[in-house]
């Protein structure tokens, strides 16, 4: 009996250690989302370069989390819910790595955009969209730490708002491009950034769905609430 | 001794079962890549709808693979290389699910594009790019089944070709948009499709990197050979 209790608490301690790494990684990714939007809006090339450097540390952390999780499984042989929790660590760190990549891509593009004509209001609109996604990501991670399925369900719902922001921006960029062909290249890049932010929202939703799975044992059955993902807009 | 041998072979049998599901999933994803390019080029709305339906089966298969892998870990408590192999099953099926999503997105967009003016040669160029990625995906999965690190390294190298195809298309679409604003909306969608195919190539590379990790115990150290991921092109 005593022995079993000892084994259980050793597993819990190890799980906490690896989850702390996930939380750390989450913090780094939240900062990357935040700073990428700032770098884009203020055309701050140094900040953009810094985000690209920091992405290497995010990638390294994912690798470390994978190794630690594998070690935990090998050492403690967890089952059922415990095992599910360790596997979710691997999934969530992979999602965070993808989001970090998107932030890095935005930083790269903001360097390219710095040499192009500015598009009125685009930087601010993208920062607003990015702030929404950053808050979703924060709440998705909080819901994970607290195993809060209600908060996770709320994150899923908010993705609809991000999809609507993306669709509105898509139309705005089209208008800019049709009005003046000199805007075309910049708008192509801005459109990509909008799409990257929209994808980050999808990934925050992916984390929320993992939390719901952990809390309830089932993935949400209803299709994720979603705005039209391919805006239907005719050519001028 | 006899007992240990029994345990080993039970693990191997279980691993083969779950790997067979990954192979099946890989076949479905290869078909989806193939058909998405055909649906786009021939403006075949029924085929596009079919791809969207089939994506549900791909998603369900990922879920099943996850459950089987978790069951395998819980039941057989694999360690070291064995554990790494089971975890790679989870990773690879997740990558395949992402690629299936990209194929579905292409199918969605090809429905939207069917109502727009055609862009000369775009369908054929995208199908060529898609065929390259489909072959990479096939070889990545073959390298996985055969634990063939040399074939996996070859897949990684070929991603450079896909990046170059993408960059050439990016420039072509820009030219079409600048020549005639009526092409803008169609080119925005086509550009997205090109980017989705380029991302599929990245994912095939991701599978190849898992294979190299399985075969050598280390992720490839050298940065992945890569064309410029954000084309630097000035506005007209």
Automatic annotation (TrEMBL), chains A, B:
Q: Its GO biological process terms?
A: intracellular phosphate ion homeostasis; negative regulation of phosphate metabolic process; phosphate ion transport
SUPFAM superfamilies the UniProt entry points to: PhoU-like
Q: How does it assemble?
A: Homodimer.
Instruction: Establish whether keyword Transport is in the entry.
Output: yes
InterPro entries named in the record: PhoU, PhoU-like_sf, PhoU_dom
Tell me the protein's name. Answer: Phosphate-specific transport system accessory protein PhoU
Please give the NCBIfam families that the UniProt record associates with this protein. Answer: phoU_full (TIGR02135)
Residues covered by the PhoU domain = 23-109, 126-211
């Amino acid at each position: 009996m005593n022995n079993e209790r000892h084994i259980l608490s050793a597993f819990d301690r190890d799980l906490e250690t690896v989850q702390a790494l996930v939380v750390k990684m989450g913090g780094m990714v939240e900062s990357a989302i935040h700073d990428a939007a700032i770098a884009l809006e203020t055309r701050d090339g140094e900040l953009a370069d810094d985000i690209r450097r920091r992405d290497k540390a995010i990638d390294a952390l994912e690798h470390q989390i994978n190794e630690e999780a594998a070690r935990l499984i090998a050492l403690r042989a967890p089952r059922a819910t415990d095992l599910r929790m360790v596997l979710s660590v691997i999934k969530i760190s992979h999602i965070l790595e993808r989001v970090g990549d998107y932030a890095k891509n935005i930083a790269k593009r903001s360097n390219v955009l710095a040499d192009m004509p500015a598009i009125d209001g685009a930087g601010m609109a993208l920062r607003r969209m990015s702030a929404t996604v950053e808050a979703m990501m924060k709440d998705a991670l909080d819901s994970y730490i607290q195993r809060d399925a209600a908060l996770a369900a709320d994150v899923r719902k908010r993705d609809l708002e991000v999809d609507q922001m993306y669709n509105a921006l898509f139309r705005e960029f089209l208008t800019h491009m049709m009005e003046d062909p000199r805007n075309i290249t910049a708008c192509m890049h801005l459109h990509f950034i909008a799409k990257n932010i929209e994808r980050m929202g999808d990934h925050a939703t992916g984390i929320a769905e993992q939390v719901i799975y952990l809390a309830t044992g089932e993935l949400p059955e209803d299709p994720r609430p979603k705005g039209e993902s391919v805006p239907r807009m005719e050519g001028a």
